[in-house]
Amino acid sequence: MVLQNLYLSYKRDTKYLLYWMINVSNRLLRSTTDGETQSAGSVNTTGQSTVNGLISMSKLISQHKEPVPNVIYRLFGSIIQARSLVSTTFQELMGPDSDEELKRSNECHRHFINTLRSAFKILGGEEWEKTSAATSDDTEDVEQILFANKFQELSVDKEGASSDEDDNVGQPQSPVAARKVSRKPRGKGKKARKYKKPKKGKKQDTQDPATDEIPIESIRIIEDNGDVGLVTDYLLAVYSTVKEWADLRAYTQSLWREVAYEGLNSAVAGAVSNLTISMVKRTNAAIFVDFPGHDTYETIMNTITRGNMDRAQGKFRLALFALDPDGEQHSQKETAVDIKEQFLIHAYQDLRDFVLDFQANRTGKPTKAMQAKISKWDPNFNLERATNEERVNWRRCYTIKWLYDLVNVFSSIVVQRNTVRGEKHVYENVDWSASGPWSVHRVLFGLNEFAGDITSMAMKKPGTDITKMIYPHHVFQMQCIVDSFTVSRGWSLSALHGHMLEAPAKKGRARRDVDLFLDRQNKRVFAGYCQTVDLLKQILEKDGKMAQHKDFFEIIKIAQLDFVDFLGEHKYTTGLDTIPPSRFADHNPNGLQEYSPILCGVGLEEGLEIAYRIGMFLWERMPEPTLMIHLHNAVVQKGYLFRPVGLCATLEDLFKHTFFAQGRKPKSEFVDALLASVGQPGSRQAQAQRQAIRYRRRFAENVHQLFDLEINQINFQEELHAYHLSASGVEPRGHS
């Protein structure tokens, strides 16, 4: 996976650097070591600083020989690198007819970079690079270092404070630094402040030094050139955003290639793809809170290409370097980046053109002009022998066909209702969102939010400006959908190598893992979700418990039917009245699913989640699983079993907090241990749980809310989360 977004890292690092510089400068200005109290007007009370203000603060810190932590030098390097990267990129975009705004922005970039380098030099950065940069500890916790300064000042005896600092001898210091900022380990929770007793003859200072700190939330740098500086930051934000798209796209492409060629389960790739889409969405929200109204895909693309994609093509270059034994870099290959691919421009144009074509008549059928372009699409087209232009056109036809099927399926309930007497739904006014009133009717698994957004755009009146409705996460998700299919056909894209081709995957059927999960055709004995539900019915009837669980089993049966009808297949394949047939009908009426590995993958992920929730709810309703685990533990502790039963022992070890109070297996008093785990009959705990279940049934709007596991006594999610954290090297929190 990629690291944090460049702009967000730059913004964070800039804030950390300013926090340290402003607060250290303020402390020095307030000090009376020179025998004179500095003017109160010189103290920064707002947390804001101009670019040129960095120089004055650096000089003050240097004059007082204030120690500079290694992490501060690294923050300088990180900020300078980010600024330089973007400045170089946009410098290459500048031509003889470049607009004045871009020229002023690049001048602002250079001024900021030069100022940072000057401040770095004043603080002894050049000497640090020669003596300490290579050996500094890269694992330093930035916040731990920076906020250590704050707690150092909590001593009332300012003269005695230096005695503590003499003990800090860990890291190499800068030549400017006479002493090292101490690193204090993080504790759990807040601790009371400790003040030293003042020495005799000294008057105690009653002012709390902590109140003099400028909080990090208030820290902000103000560009000297005003609006030009804001444009400069926006260019940095745009560049880092587009770079993240390219990195994440390359990663998801590799995942779907593993699905097609190496057998990776599509639910895994679907889950990770959803994660990358969420990353794009969160990054967009985090960045463009600084630039409201400039967060649509088209605005971002016009910014990075300066409104001219053809001129921008070839301006962005990518180089591959190799390191020799001495650590020197040697260029191996350099190529111009295909920005229409790496900036997702093709995906955006195909999505936009589909929406505009659908809006033309809103019948679910392409216009005659569009139909003429896409009608000859062939899923078995030989991509290896095709030209780049032919492959791009083949992909465009697929995208538009697939989107027509997606919107027709997602809107089918409302469209059919409009044929009923007395019902007239105005398409542009319908709430098509995944959480809207029509979401109670299941028509799709896994892509409901995306389908709702695209349907909402497509159902607008002709002439509606939809460019303001298309955001980066829509385009990125569209690209992931398309890539999952083209990769299975042997075609992937590389920023360095361009079009990469191989033979289509022989076992890369999109529905492969869905069919394994459901086993609609009952090809295996006692396997697949469909057979499991039928087997459960037989067991409940044989044990005479169907009446007790009738209402719950009806819900299970509904979920089973939804899986059969809409997971990996759709009623659309057999034709629906008033709904146009599939655009893929000439090759495969189920093309919406068969030609979309990602739809099957994310659909399977949602299906597995629902099946898991139902299973956990079933365990909650049936006492046998918990009783079996407690009985097994009792007979093992009593020595009645020569060895533990493998399955029971595994469940006990993995989910001890689920089955046993405080996660402790009882060695005696087994009845009391059971009651402590499940609650006394008629207790407040049991009553509250029953009340929560009734409330959930009454107000749940979908199956996910109906089987919300938060209130379940038996819930493996917390246990599994703890094990995942442990496997990742993160210490899990203790259970309450």
From TrEMBL:
Pfam families cross-referenced by the UniProt entry: DUF6604 (PF20253)
- Which organism is the protein's source? Fusarium oxysporum NRRL 32931
InterPro entries for the chain: DUF6604 (IPR046539), UCP028035 (IPR016864)
Phylogenetic classification of the source organism: Eukaryota, Fungi, Dikarya, Ascomycota, Pezizomycotina
What superkingdom heads the lineage? Eukaryota
Identification of the protein by name: DUF6604 domain-containing protein
Q: Which residues form the DUF6604 domain?
A: 9-288
Where is the segment annotated Disordered?
Answer: 157-212
Compositional bias segments (type: Basic residues): 180-202
